[in-house]
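pipeline stage [seq->struct] | target=Tight adherence protein B | organism=Pseudonocardia halophobica | residues=268
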Amino acid sequence: MSAAVPALLAAALVCAPGPSARRRLRVLAPAPTARVLAVPPLRLLVVLAGAGLGLVLGGPAGGVAGAGAAEVVRHRRARARERAGASAAAGELAEAVSRIVEELRSGAHPAAALDGARSDGPLAAEALAPAAAAARLGDDVPAALRRGAADRGDLVGTELRRLAGAWSLADRHGAPLADLLSGTLADLRWRLAFEARVRARLAGPRATAGVLTALPVLGLGLGHLLGADPLGVLRGGLLGQVLLLVGSGLLLAGLLWSDRIATGPVSR
């Protein structure tokens, strides 16, 4: 019996699968992996919530109208965040260009002046990062500025292209770079001040558009107070469903159109 134990161990070692056999076994029977639950994006959740609320209040047409209203509200909030981010980035870029001009006039090297963009804010640092890297490596700074502006359609992209033009002019003709960048800075500050004035003057029309959009909803509430049951009319038959769809579509289209009119002068 004692002699059989070592023999069995030796046989087990001989019959044990080698590395290639273990790889084949792993392919045939892969190890269990943890399942990752996919979380729906916020946009889908917002639209589904609006559709569910509209379905409860107004039937199938109300579900469609609720989904459209939720998407329009989400779109308006996203556009407002984009505009606020673009304005903040343009403000940081103006401060960065002002500091670069001051450092150039004090005798600093352009690469060192561009490297300081990290202290001007994250948005300015992101916009000027390609130019700073090109200046450190002795590469073409105007081309790097144009690459940074290629994916931007806001005021920052426009000013990056203007900075690239000023830098190219200084490289080709030997003009003082600080003076050329100072002119670009003056233009950027004027544009920021102009945008602020336009936004202030359009605040009233935007508020009026919001009030006009809320009037149909207030009318439904007033009808309930008077005992007319407007939701029952809209929910009760084919004509009410069609009227609900058409009215909601016109209301949302008017809201989007008023936003386009109000933001058009600022974006240009």
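stage status: PASS
auto-comment: Residues 142 and 164 are 4 Å apart (CA to CA). Residues 66-218+239-257 form one domain.
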